[in-house]
Structure formats: C-alpha cells, structure tokens
Write a structure and sequence with these properties.
Layout: H1 8-15, H2 20-36, H3 43-50, H4 54-64, E1 66-68, E2 71-73, H5 75-105, E3 130-136, H6 145-154, H7 160-174, E4 180-183, H8 184-194, H9 197-204, H10 215-225, H11 235-245
Antiparallel strand pairs: 1-2, 3-4
Helix pairs in contact: 2-3, 3-4, 6-8, 10-11
C-alpha cells in the first residue's frame, strides 16, 4: 500500500506518552507494516529496518500490536489492508468483465494476439532476467536457480539465500523509479560482488540479547538486584534506576 488513512487526533491521544525516539519508531513501524502488508516476525528484524533498537520495538509491539501464530498484528492496519485488497480485487474483476465484453464483440478474424495484449503492472511478477521496460521487484519474486549458481560461483563465502533476503528487502523498499530496473540479473550480479561477507555472516548467526534489550530482561535484572519498579512511570526510568544501582 502506498497510501493509508491517518487520523491525527486518534494518533496523538494514543501516543502522547511516548518519548521522541519511541514516537519516531512507531511511525516508521506503521509505514513498514502497510508497505509490506504482513505482520512483524520479531523485534530484531524490525529494529534493523526502521533504524531503532530491539528494546524500543518490543515495547511498542507489546503496547500497540497483538501477537498471533504468524507474528505481530496491527488490528487497525489489517482492517485497512483488507479493505484495500477487496477494492483492488473488485476493480480487477470489473476490468476483466469489461475487456471480455469488448473481446466478444470482435469477430474471430479480428482477434489478433500480441505480446502486449496483457498489461503489466508494478506488482507483476518478473519472469525474465531482462525486461523491455523498467520494472519493480515483486514481493512474491523468488530466488531463480541462475542467480543461486552465480552467487555460489562468484562468491563461495556467501549464502545465496541470505544475500537474496537482503537484496529483496532493499529493492522492494525503494519503490518508484529508483526501484525499477531493466535488467534485474545484472543488478543481482553487482549486489553479490559488492556484498560484505562479514555482514551477512553476522546476520545469519543468532543475536545474543543483553538484559537491557527487552522489557522482560529489564524486569528480570531489576528483580535480581531487588529494585522496586513501582516509582517508575516508564520502563526507561526503571532501566536508569538499574544502571545507577549497578
């Protein structure tokens, strides 16, 4: 989704208690949720994408999102996304009916098929490495065998799947003309050659959490030190008390 309704009054009434960093992170989380149209998997991956900390992201997830089997959901955003998809499906079906009606009016002799008969959209799956018109990378575009073989041949120190996840997240997030390419395979080759192996190896390893990375960790550390949280208005104040005690 490139657009969603934003109610200023509702937002202010629900977020006036947030710090500047928390407010910025929450706004970016909302944009990311609508852009990807999928629930959040975990606080670490979200924090990396919005340039925040896992602790802040987890705090916001627990306050404004609901954890279900497939991840963290925003009920309000899910409703808007479902409305958007229903409207898109309705428009697509109407177009199909209109084009079918026009086709029925033609004689068999007039029905000449061409390569451009079916219009391409920004969300069309890229089925070939090189296109005649710049296209955006589709969200459901999977890693081709040719791309895997190139990565394993050119950079044996990298995991093709890890590189592709980073590659896909970046280019889908670009959108617009900056995210449109004529030759995606060439873009992939350049990406693989310029990727730092140390970065990807770090991403593949599980991240060791510190006591201050999560709310549960802060509470556990406070309990360990015997610090009463009742006088703290926010988890940040409680963390400061713990740090001073340490």
């Amino acid at each position: 989704m490139n657009f969603y309704p934003f109610h200023i009054g509702d937002y202010i009434s629900h977020t006036r208690h947030l710090s500047d960093k928390e407010d910025l992170a929450y706004r970016r989380m909302i944009d990311l949720y609508y852009q990807n149209e999928t629930p959040f998997a975990d606080e670490i991956s979200v924090a990396r994408k919005i340039k925040s900390t896992p602790k802040i992201v987890l705090l916001l997830l627990e306050e404004f999102f609901v954890l279900e089997n497939d991840g963290w959901h925003s009920k309000r955003a899910d409703e808007e996304i479902n409305k958007y998809k229903a409207k898109s499906d309705s428009a697509r079906k109407a177009n199909e009916i209109r084009w079918q009606s026009k086709s029925d009016l033609k004689s068999d002799a007039d029905q000449i098929l061409t390569k451009n008969q079916e219009p391409l959209t920004n969300n069309h799956i890229i089925s070939v490495a090189k296109a005649t018109k710049a296209q955006r990378l589709s969200k459901d575009f999977i890693l081709p065998t040719e791309w895997i073989e190139f990565c394993r041949t050119e950079r044996k120190d990298l995991s093709p799947e890890s590189v592709f996840a980073q590659f896909k997240d970046y280019w889908i997030a670009q959108g617009g003309q900056k995210g449109a390419k004529l030759d995606w395979f060439a873009t992939w080759r350049n990406w693989v050659r310029n990727t730092k192996a140390t970065f990807l190896k770090t991403q593949d390893k599980p991240v060791e959490k510190k006591w201050f990375d999560t709310i549960d960790g802060i509470k556990a550390k406070g309990a360990e030190l015997g610090i009463d949280p009742s006088g703290c208005a926010t988890i940040g104040q409680y963390e400061d008390m713990i740090r001073k005690a340490m």
